[in-house]
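Onboarding guide, step 5: your first structure request.
Type a short instruction followed by the sequence, for example:

Predict the 3D structure of this protein.
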Amino acid sequence: MPTELTNESLRGICENNFKLAHFAIDLARYYIHAGRETHLKDLIREIKKHPNPHYVEELREIDAIEKRATEQEER
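The system replies with structure tokens like these:
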């Protein structure tokens, strides 16, 4: 059975639809910057999977930690 991608299924993730749209835009920008091809359905599924509006910030922090670890290994 396909996952429903409706407004009702996304309700409650953010305070309002504008913040939800900004969350989706930030996530899309993150994926594009990371070189990852993405589609709207993929973004919505990812948002449903990780409904924390600060998810993109957490991904960026993880990237920074990994980058520092790689730099230390190279020394």
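Each response can be followed by summary notes, for example: The mean pLDDT is 85.
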